[in-house]
Amino acid sequence: MTAPVNAGLQHQNQHQSQPHHADAHTSESRDHAMTSTLPSSISGQLAPVSLRIRERLDAAGVPYLANDNIADHLQPGELDQLEIEVAGKVRDLLRSLVIDIDKDHNTEETAERVARMYIHEVFKGRYHEQPKIASFPNVKKLDEIYTVGPITVRSACSHHLVPILGTCWIGIKPGDRVIGLSKFSRVADWVFSRPHIQEEAVMILADEIERLCQPQGLAILVKAQHYCMKWRGVKEPQTSMVNSVVRGDFRHDPSLKAEFFELVKQQESLLIA
């Protein structure tokens, strides 16, 4: 007789507990719905800054490829937060490489150094705004070409994140506006301070110079050594890559193009001498 009673009580208790589970499920669903409407939230907590930035870029339809600049879409304080986040990821990388960063005095602060280097030096062209570059009216109506170089350029291969080191020459046939000679070096450093392939880097630099001074003609020549070939892979220490871009009058007038390359040769010979 006791068994049926106990069974009935058990069934009653289960039946009485069901609304509680339903209420809990409803509450969890409501909390999840409220949380999911918050931007960049994970379990009710603010998401990593890199995720918040990516969400903002995606919402605006802005690309963020390795050689894109995203400075206009960063909010105050986010670079500092990003540096902290990257340092944490680098620590994880070092641990995954089985490096005891807790006991090795040489690497205990490596993560912080690497994060700072990437964001504020090696890849600063992604995260920092272009240096202020003033242009001036070409009041004398200068129309003879001039070259600037060699300008040292430093970048990193997008494929392996190892250095690209080289030199750059820029040829200008002035238009309505001109910029100071040192400004070519500043903008080249800003453009190349991103992960790149050399062919794209030269095109991006050309776009920026055209935007800054609207020349009648523009020519750029870059010679660089790639450590993805010198340091690893085929390990060819003497191999370099040379490429150029010519626009405007340099493209349409073969004599101007030839004059640019001749001037570059003359500048190189002076350096060798």
Total strands: the figure is 9
Order of secondary-structure elements: HEEHHHHEEEEHEHEHEHH
Q: Roughly how many Å apart are the termini? A: 113 Å
CATH fold descriptor of the largest domain? GTP Cyclohydrolase I, domain 2
Classification by helices and strands? alpha+beta
What would you say the CATH architecture of the largest domain is? 2-Layer Sandwich
In terms of per-residue confidence, which ranges show pLDDT below 50 for 5 or more consecutive residues? 1-38
> How much is the average pLDDT?
87
User: How many structurally independent domains?
Assistant: 2
What is Rg?
A: 29 Å
Percent of residues in helices comes to 40-55%
Q: What is the helix tally?
A: 10
CATH superfamily of the largest domain: GTP cyclohydrolase I, C-terminal domain/NADPH-dependent 7-cyano-7-deazaguanine reductase, N-terminal domain
User: Given this structure, which CATH class of the largest domain is correct?
Assistant: Alpha Beta
Question: Strand percentage, roughly?
Answer: 15-25%
Shape: globular
Strand order in the largest sheet: 7-4-5-8-9
Concise account of the structure shown:
This protein has 273 residues and is of the alpha+beta class. The protein is built from 10 helices and 9 strands.
